[in-house]
Amino acid sequence: MATAQRATSSLSTTELSILGLLFSRERSGYDLKKAADAGVGYVWTPARSHVYAVLPRLVEGGFATVRTVAQERRPDKQVYRITKHGKDSFVRWLEEPIDERPGSSDLFLLKVFFGGRMRREALVAHVERRRAYVAEKLAEFREIEGEVRGDETEYYGYLTLRWGLELAEAWIRWADEVLPELADR
Amino acid sequence: MATAQRATSSLSTTELSILGLLFSRERSGYDLKKAADAGVGYVWTPARSHVYAVLPRLVEGGFATVRTVAQERRPDKQVYRITKHGKDSFVRWLEEPIDERPGSSDLFLLKVFFGGRMRREALVAHVERRRAYVAEKLAEFREIEGEVRGDETEYYGYLTLRWGLELAEAWIRWADEVLPELADR
DNA sequence: GTCGACATGTAACCAGTTACATGATTAA
DNA sequence: TTAATCATGTAACTGGTTACATGTCGAC
């Protein structure tokens, strides 16, 4: 019974996504992979084998429990159920601010996808932070754009920069649509 | 002299970015890391140690050569120069179509960044393919949107879907700006 | 005297992928 | 009879990260 209760910060995308899916009901590895492909898919698509590799680790960490379900005309299955510790850890992770620096993998959409599990204000704060960060980037990019535009030697870098601008603008449009909606709920 | 001349398809993002940077001039690992942070950064930001790890592999594969440059009041350095094989491989990779399926890492912007090294038609084809793929996705997402909108239980999935729509529209706007420009060159 | 730029690397680790391996049931 | 669905896992590998390790020179 050495359920070590690992900290929430050390959880990988796959582990977090699984916890999110287990939140609503217990599932087998097979179910989880299917649920991922159908639902979170836009945000998270792990290999099947990876799901199986991660599940025992969740149990070891005290985030979930397993139970073998014998079936007659189907192979037996291992069904995983989230624990109190798992739920608490997941919600804590959900609500904690996202590291916006480039390179840090983007878990923003994963948090939004499971947005119903956190307090409304926490989700609103995430969206506001993203909006603020992107607005800053946008200003930076616009400055660089002014310097680079027209410089033939930098033309292809300029094209990628313009994608950066388009992307930043898209985030801002999205946030400006979503924020009033969340406020109205 | 066992320069095995590995195939181009087996090159990683880091290896390709380095080849792209070496295309214009020879550089040390230190230079490459700096150049990456300043330029390709938007698209590629490897760890310093990773750059050093990859360089000998490029030499082994016949993509580059090394030369030790002794310096008086600076540590000696290893300067890497791209070979004919390296250039050919890089251009072949640049021009070959991108795997648009989700999950396949996105090398699109890397190709655009080094777009000056390929034939104009090849770059145009990349942008057109991206546009076509995204337009398809957009149609799909719009259909799902119709089904999901208003379903309270799916609200948070609906928010992420709407990001997908915004993103797809951003790609299309970008492509529609860039394509006529490329045609005019 | 301390900080930043110059310069290179090793070692340990982690997340994730593909390929391999197995096998029953059910529907077309 | 062929393919899809159900069901779980191991092994080998890759691409990448952080931390450790070392040392000089020049500017403030």
Structure notes:
- 2 copies of one chain form a homodimer.
- The first copy, chain A, is mainly α.
- The first copy, chain A, has 2 domains: 9-94, Orthogonal Bundle (Arc Repressor Mutant, subunit A), CATH 1.10.10; 119-184.
- In chain A, 60% of the residues lie in helices and 8% in strands.
- Chain A is built from 7 helices and 3 strands; from the N terminus they run H-E-H-H-E-E-H-H-H-H.
- Chain A has helices spanning 13-24, 29-38, 48-60, 84-95, 108-113, 120-148, 155-183; strands at 27-28, 64-69, 77-82.
- Chain A has a 3-stranded antiparallel beta sheet.
- In chain A, helix 2 (29-38) crosses helix 3 (48-60).
- The radius of gyration of chain A is 21 Å and the shape is elongated.
- The model of chain A has no long low-confidence stretch (mean pLDDT 92).
- Chain A binds chain B through residues 39, 41-43, 45, 102-103, 109, 112-116, 155-157, 159-164, 166-167, 169-171, 173-174, 177-178, and chain B through 39, 41-43, 45, 102-103, 109, 112-116, 155-157, 159-164, 166-167, 169-171, 173-174, 177-178.
- The first copy, chain A, binds a DNA duplex (28 and 28 nucleotides) through helix 3.
